[in-house]
From TrEMBL, chain A:
<dbReference type="InterPro" id="IPR036683">
    <property type="entry name" value="CO_DH_flav_C_dom_sf"/>
</dbReference>
<keyword id="KW-0560">Oxidoreductase</keyword>
<dbReference type="GO" id="GO:0016491">
    <property type="term" value="F:oxidoreductase activity"/>
</dbReference>
<dbReference type="InterPro" id="IPR016166">
    <property type="entry name" value="FAD-bd_PCMH"/>
</dbReference>
<protein>
    <submittedName>
        <fullName>Carbon-monoxide dehydrogenase medium subunit</fullName>
    </submittedName>
</protein>
<feature type="domain" description="FAD-binding PCMH-type">
    <location>
        <begin position="1"/>
        <end position="177"/>
    </location>
</feature>
<dbReference type="GO" id="GO:0071949">
    <property type="term" value="F:FAD binding"/>
</dbReference>
<keyword id="KW-0285">Flavoprotein</keyword>
<dbReference type="Pfam" id="PF00941">
    <property type="entry name" value="FAD_binding_5"/>
</dbReference>
TrEMBL record, chain B:
<dbReference type="InterPro" id="IPR036856">
    <property type="entry name" value="Ald_Oxase/Xan_DH_a/b_sf"/>
</dbReference>
<dbReference type="InterPro" id="IPR008274">
    <property type="entry name" value="AldOxase/xan_DH_MoCoBD1"/>
</dbReference>
<dbReference type="InterPro" id="IPR000674">
    <property type="entry name" value="Ald_Oxase/Xan_DH_a/b"/>
</dbReference>
<dbReference type="GO" id="GO:0016491">
    <property type="term" value="F:oxidoreductase activity"/>
</dbReference>
<protein>
    <submittedName>
        <fullName>CO or xanthine dehydrogenase, Mo-binding subunit</fullName>
    </submittedName>
</protein>
<keyword id="KW-0500">Molybdenum</keyword>
<dbReference type="GO" id="GO:0005506">
    <property type="term" value="F:iron ion binding"/>
</dbReference>
<dbReference type="Pfam" id="PF20256">
    <property type="entry name" value="MoCoBD_2"/>
</dbReference>
<feature type="domain" description="Aldehyde oxidase/xanthine dehydrogenase a/b hammerhead">
    <location>
        <begin position="20"/>
        <end position="135"/>
    </location>
</feature>
Length: 289, 796
């Protein structure tokens, strides 16, 4: 379990990093927190000829919190985002989801943007970005583009990041008034990738009736599966909403697979159970907001 | 015991070193060594047609590539079969490097030596092995029925077959008694594979001294003395020219008792051949596919019992999955068959097992070593009887218990050590009483009803076991007191983090009457002690602990004799306190042990102050007697061995309360209680630590760990991402109570404690889930997904 040979680049600035990546093209890979990449290298599942280490780019270790939302720089660690009170005040779902990401030592090293770029459908952060309708900013020398979450996750471990591009930041929209979020998941062990998980967002109108209810599902499709269940809930106050119908609507939309840890049927069942729980929790949050 | 050290919760003296990164494991040694990597078979069953290394030869830093054809005659043989048994009619072991056929994924085929491990792996990736694929045999039932053979010359894939029968007191056999019993039950049980997962994998580092023609080998092993003998034999070296040292070892759990591993002979061979230090460090993937697994069995059970639940006859037929080879004999199924009886006296017993070859990693003992399967069988049987009769589960157990006045109790079987299975001591009714009190057995129905009213499902489970520990044939201890007053203790068996440095020092300090700080302990170093068996079968404290105590008693006796002469007193009037020999009742009359050590040696160069001072005690020399009397030795040292007539039997009972989520089917352990009896406790804190670690492994085996093979014999979860060992977050806090029923078999009255915690894990958790769900749990481990399936099947 030692990686095959590669050229190691340690750029000192974003410009240098983008140049190195542009030159490496499809043979380049970005090393940030390394929590997925290093094991893949060691098991020789990935064999990039060039590794561009961005850990010296302190200019990317940013956390910009504004009324509209949170922009997380490529070198902001999970722990930094998780512990930020300002982030929690603007978008509490980030902290709730991050606490389910692996373990503290991994969160001290792993990065939020790295997790998004890795695009694992079993990971929490892609579901959060998808649910909130956030975006990822990609850069190459002289060109920057923002890709909305709906277009960013292409398939399992496949994102819209192209050869030679660097994901420099991600934007998570703020939680609006009379809105609530929740994250529920079932994992085999604490901190494992979820067998199934649900991020939920519920908005109420001034009369405290549900105007919008959406969930993003983890581990039950090639990418985070976003389902709008507003109609199923009915335009009603949370106390009389038809959560069971909403859960069925979610179950109908997912296409889980059987693996060594759980059957597809069990994952579908869990998705329904967790959707109902997460929607109720989110609605409760919204009522208090 | 002259001081209170024995029985005290003394802090582990190895911890500061091990917990602050100061440990010295094999991979911490030999920074300049060449490193080894192996090309291992990617196929479960294949014939090697050709090995082409031409692409690999250009890699800079490559030193050597070896295949089976390069091996000298002694190494080109199959590896030794340890512990043969008449029932093992078709024992098979692997070649150090595959000769023609590979029989499991991970079998070593080519050995590469290079400047470092990175380069060695690069070379491995460039070596082309041409395989002719053969049909793999996977799954123990499939293998037992398959026309396909793992070994061409082993019909029906049966390596061993053994039937043991214990008739009832009036001479009836189990099958007759079951036929005529008032009630009978028949069922099937399944246990899946798990494995020892030490944090440190295996590792070997060899240094050949060309001038001295000697070899020093460091191995992460549970038996350095036997590895030494194997290396000397396989490399044709005189035994005194081979030293083997087990440095700090990061866990073993059984897998490192197997010896010699291919790497343990290949790495020293390469070091000799190349005239350079060579090292191999196993990585995690190698550990999964190239070491050993355990546990997998299918059991067919038939039991006959009376209206009170008294077992009249028990008939168990076991299919034991042995993987591709049997290097460690059939110890595991033998232990399952014999230890299955637990604390019970069964009317008549019949047990039959078949050890079946499959194209998977070989099976050798893993902590518990066949006992968890046996206990699962017996405890499931007890629960099923209770359910059938509508009786309390503890009542059924109690009525079958061996009573305290029935020891020694002969179970009528032959145990793993080849000796009669005779329990030396125990108090099972008291153990059960303590457990019921600890877990609140009698109050549980009310608790369960209350939980049900809140919409929660909770269940209570129980499991009892007896564990043969301190297996022979012997261990030895050596103790030397030097003229600086230090006490040097050594024993040949090895340590893997259990705390031997602490407990052996406690024993020596207590026996000799010296402060513990003066005692140092060395284990597993053949330079210090040449004869030993190894660390397994919960034997270290019993075997080496008693040997060290006996060696200390020899030294003490000699010290008192010499001191008596110097103090002009009777040895019987002397005591040793705090490292000083004193005349009882005359505090002024004393002599330090350091001085006694000087006096013990007629050669007294004044190298240190103690030696200079000691001359004042030198008695008048007698010219007609030699300075060292016949039968005496210079120095204050002693060596002794402990060799028991048979194993000593520890026991315990566990109970757990679990909650199963009615919606998600998640299983959570709310409480876990242990009553444990390993005789006299040397260090209760270390015993509790052993129990905690064992329970954690038991929980792993019950709820998380399994080796998932597909039909092609590929292990699908050969990494810590997919092989789920429980984290601290999955382990409940463990409540323990101790019972101390001393063993009459050894001087210290102790029994082994190393494996106890893991043994009843699957039985207890299955029992608790069954209680919570009202669904039969006869297959372990169980995941939430499987519980979900069982619920659906139960409700149609």
């Amino acid at each position: 379990m030692k990686p095959p040979p590669f050229d190691y680049h340690a750029p000192r600035s974003l410009g240098e990093a983008l140049d190195a990546l542009a030159e490496a093209g499809e043979h380049g890979k970005v090393l940030a927190g390394g929590q997925s990449l290093i094991p893949m290298l060691n098991m020789r599942l990935a064999a990039p000829a060039h590794l561009v280490d961005i850990n010296r780019l302190s200019e990317l270790a940013t956390l910009d919190v504004g009324p509209d939302g949170v922009r997380v720089g490529a070198l902001a660690r999970h722990a930094q985002v998780e512990r930020s009170e300002r982030v929690a005040a603007v978008q509490p779902l980030l902290r709730e989801a991050l606490r389910l990401v692996a373990h503290p030592v991994i969160r001290n090293r792993g990065t939020v943007v790295g997790s998004l770029a890795h695009a694992d459908p079993a990971a929490e952060l892609p579901a959060v970005l998808a649910l909130l309708g956030g975006s990822v900013r990609l850069a190459r020398p002289g060109v920057t583009r923002d890709v909305p979450a709906a277009d960013f996750f292409v398939g399992p471990l496949e994102s819209a990041v192209e050869s030679g591009e660097l994901a420099v930041s991600a934007f998570f929209p703020a939680l609006l008034p009379r809105s609530g979020t929740a994250f529920r998941e079932v994992a085999r062990r604490h901190g494992d990738y979820a067998l199934a998980g649900i991020a939920a967002l519920v908005r109420l109108d001034d009369d405290l009736r549900i105007t919008s209810a959406t969930v993003a599902c983890v581990s039950v499709g090639p990418v985070p599966v976003v389902v709008d269940v507003t109609a199923a809930c009915g335009h009603r106050p949370p106390a009389t909403a038809d959560w069971a119908s909403a859960a069925w609507a979610v179950q109908d939309r997912v296409d889980p697979e059987t693996d060594i840890h759980a059957t597809a049927d069990y994952r579908r069942h869990l998705t329904g159970v967790l959707a109902e729980q997460a929607l109720r929790d989110a609605a409760r949050e919204a009522t208090g907001a | 015991m002259s001081t209170k050290l024995f029985g005290e919760p003394v802090q582990r003296r190895e911890d500061p070193r091990l917990l602050t990164g100061q440990g010295r494991y094999v991979d911490d040694l030999g920074a300049g060594a060449l490193e080894v990597a192996f090309v291992r078979s990617p196929h479960a069953h294949a014939r090697i047609r050709d090995i082409d290394v031409s692409d690999a030869l250009d890699v800079e830093g490559l030193v050597a590539i070896y295949t089976w054809e390069d091996l000298p005659t002694l190494l080109a043989q199959p590896l030794p079969l340890l512990i043969p048994h008449p029932a093992l009619t078709h024992g098979r072991t692997a070649y150090p490097l595959a000769r023609d056929v590979v029989r499991h994924v991970g079998e070593p085929v080519v050995m590469v030596v290079a400047r470092d491990r990175y380069l060695a792996e690069d070379v491995c990736a460039l070596i082309q092995v041409d395989y002719e694929l053969l049909k793999p045999v996977v799954g123990v039932e499939e293998a037992a029925q398959s026309a396909q053979l793992v070994h061409e010359d082993v019909p029906d894939n049966v390596g061993a077959h053994l039937i043991q029968e214990v008739p009832s007191a009036d001479g009836l056999d189990a099958r007759e008694l079951i036929e005529t019993a008032p009630h009978t039950l028949t069922f099937r049980l399944d246990i899946e594979r798990s494995a020892s997962m030490p944090l440190e994998g295996r590792g070997v580092y060899a240094r050949w001294d060309a001038d001295d023609r000697s070899l020093r080998v460091y191995s992460s092993t549970q038996t350095s003395t036997s590895v030494r003998m194997a290396i000397a034999a396989k490399l044709g070296l005189p035994l005194p020219k081979v030293e083997v040292i087990a440095p700090d070892v990061g866990g073993g759990f059984g897998v490192k008792i197997v010896h010699p591993w291919p790497e343990e002979v290949l790495v020293p061979w390469a070091a000799m051949l190349l005239g350079h230090e060579v090292k191999w460090t196993e990585d995690r993937r190698e550990h999964f596919v190239s070491s050993a697994h355990e546990r997998a069995q299918v059991q067919f059970v038939r039991v006959g019992f009376d209206d009170d639940g008294r077992v009249l006859g028990l008939d168990v037929n076991i299919l034991h999955d042995h993987g591709a080879y049997t290097p460690y004999g059939i110890i595991v199924p033998i232990i399952t068959s014999t230890q299955l009886l637990g604390p019970y006296k069964i009317g008549a017993y019949r047990v039959e097992f078949s050890s079946i070859y499959t194209n998977t990693v070989q099976v050798t003992p893993y902590r518990g070593a066949g006992r968890p399967q046996g206990v699962f069988c017996m405890e499931r049987t007890m629960d099923h009887i209770a359910e059938y009769l509508g009786a309390d589960r503890t009542a059924v157990r109690e009525i079958n218990f061996i009573q305290p006045d029935e020891f020694p109790y002969d179970q009528g079987l032959i145990f793993q050590d080849g000796r009669p299975l005779i329990y030396d001591s125990g108090d099972y009714p008291e153990s059960l009483r303590l457990l019921k009190e600890l877990i609140g057995w009698d109050g549980f129905p009310a608790l369960k009803a209350q939980a049900a009213a809140e919409g929660r499902r909770i269940g209570l489970g129980i499991g009892c076991y007896v564990e043969g520990t301190g297996v022979g044939p012997y261990e030895g201890g050596h103790v030397q007191i030097t003229s600086d007053g230090r006490v040097h203790v050594s024993t040949g068996l090895t340590s893997q983090g259990q705390g031997h440095e602490t407990v052996f020092a406690q024993i020596a300090a207590a026996e000799l009457g010296v402060p513990m700080e003066r005692v140092s302990v060395v284990t597993g170093d053949t330079r210090r002690f040449g004869y030993a068996v190894g660390t397994f079968a919960s034997r270290a404290a019993v075997m080496s602990g008693n040997a060290i105590a006996l060696a200390c008693r020899k030294v003490r006796e000699k010290a008192l004799r010499i001191a008596a002469e110097a103090l002009e007193a009777d040895p019987r009037d002397l005591e040793i306190i705090d490292g000083e020999v004193r005349v009882v009742g005359s505090p002024g009359a004393s002599i330090p042990l350091a001085t006694v050590a000087v006096l013990s040696n007629p050669l007294r160069y004044a190298f240190d102050s103690e030696t200079a001072r000691a001359t004042q005690f030198a008695g008048a020399s007698s010219f007609d007697r030699p300075p060292v009397e016949a039968g005496e030795e210079p120095g204050l040292e002693g060596r002794d061995y402990y060799s028991p007539i048979r194993s000593t039997f520890a026991s315990g009972m566990h109970a757990a309360i679990v909650e199963t989520d009615s919606l998600t089917a998640e299983i959570r352990i709310l409480r876990y209680a242990v009553v444990h009896d390993c005789g006299n406790l040397i260090n209760p804190m270390i015993v509790e630590g052993q129990i905690h670690g064992g329970v954690a492994q038991g929980v792993g085996g019950a709820l998380y760990e399994r080796m998932v093979y597909d039909d092609h014999g590929q292990l699908l979860n050969a990494s810590f991402m997919d092989f789920l060992m429980p984290y601290a977050t999955e382990i409940p806090s463990i409540e323990t109570a101790h019972l101390e029923t001393p063993s009459p078999l050894n001087p210290l009255g102790i029994k082994g404690a190393g494996e106890a915690g893991v043994i009843p894990g699957s039985a207890v958790i299955a029992s608790a889930i069954e209680d919570a769900e009202g669904i039969r749990i006869d297959k372990m481990p169980i995941s939430p997904s499987e519980l979900f399936d069982l619920r659906r099947a139960a409700t149609g």
